Structure prediction request, 519 residues.
Amino acid sequence: MGEYFKELFGGTKSLVVGLGITIKHMVKPVVTLQYPHESLKMSARFRGHIELLGDEETGASKCVVCGMCQRACPSGCIALAGEKPEGAKKKVLTSYVLDFTKCSLCGQCVESCKFGAITFSKEYNLAGPRKEAYIFDLKKRLEERSG
Amino acid sequence: MSDLARSQNQETFVLNLGPQHPATHGVLRVKLTMDGEYIVEAEPVLGYIHRMHEKMGENRTWAQFMPNTARLDYLGALSYNHGYVKVVEQAMGIEVPERAEYIRVITVELNRIASHLLWFGAFVLDLGGFTPLLYAFDDREHILDLLESVTGARLTFCYFRFGGLYNDIDDDFVTGSRAFIKRLRKRMPDYHNLVTKNIILITRLKDIGILPGEMCRKYGATGPVLRGSGVDYDVRKNEPYSVYPELDFDVPVYSECDSMARYMVRMDEMEQSMRIIEQALDKLPAGPIMPEKVPKILKPEPGDYYSAVEAPRGTFGIRVVSDGTNKAYRLKLRSPTFSNLSLFGEASQGMLLADALALMGSLDLVIPEIDR
Prediction:
């Protein structure tokens, strides 16, 4: 009988203490974010998918088509091509395609680039109905951005 | 084993737990032979999320394998990352600057707290308590924000490099970490009052799921599972690496061998991790985060290398065999949860199904790390 009342008392105490903590948290300010009505700003170092960077003056890509990013990529998601116009010293980028379906966002491409031609985007709201929506033509995106 | 389970005349039936079951936290399948509510035999079936990580290690350059380490155990990614860079540094003879070592310890310990917080929430959720999960996630969110600000990712960090780090930490990170520890110290009593001292939790865990130290040794269980069985073994103390010898911390050991002991080990470990982080932040030296010269293309001397770290779930060992080329000849990963799960079959015999699920929760399983 004594054991029974001891358990009853212990159980009630647990319940009251637990409820006390819950009530304490209930009146505290809300910690969740009302996504999608609000969304977070990503931190400066956030690793999104890659994006080509343009030259500040001309707006053309800084890429010299050395292919280091392509070789560094563990998943083989980067395909790029370039050509050397007559009379020019450096190669010029003709296409830069990122297959984001395979990308694991490790950032080895950005690290391997010695020319600062690629950077991480801050995009994270990515959703699409088709696989093709994730084959990004980065050169085209750069041209669109620089207008 | 109970008399009911032992009797041969009783009719038994097979129950599939998983591969899609909330209590198995992923795609683990356990084939249970049941006698009513009692387990006669339990057989974990693995392979549902096998991704050939070891083979991938043989087909990629040393640096290219780095992102894979975060995909083994997505909750303690930094420890695995640390294990891998450590073995390659050992093979290459690369010296790591002191500042980098301290930052490694700080981030790994933050990651350990995050991992234990998630386990805490999920474990109590398995037992039927929903609220603690939300509080634990609230705290964990602060760690993820901190780690995101330095590594750029929230789970698959990939932060360490051969010889050092990807990024240096800034003052915001240091003050943020200190503020977080202050916050968690205030929250821990809430956790203990709400969960640890709760009579339902105590009745469900105390003296249930006994794993004797001998059984742990037999199956090679490590980490909090082993320390909950009274064996004082922690790689950070027993085979010290990085700057752990310079930091003062205790290894919590409980000798009750039950689910409650394993619970208490992890709760105490969070406190110890906080102590480690505080000391490391105080001692944090200035200096470079990468050595001056790290070869661009890594070609370790032919040989056999092994290194282990203490991951949140136990000893993570990694063995690489190099044949002198830019890829590993063989890469073997010894993941702690695989061994920790192996004892489930023997330990759960004769247990009630609900108690076996509590035992499984106390093992802190992460399935992608079992299958690799």
Observations:
- The first helix of chain A runs from residue 2 to 26.
- Chain A has four helices and five strands.
- The first strand of chain A starts at residue 50 and ends at 52.
- The mean pLDDT of chain A is 84.
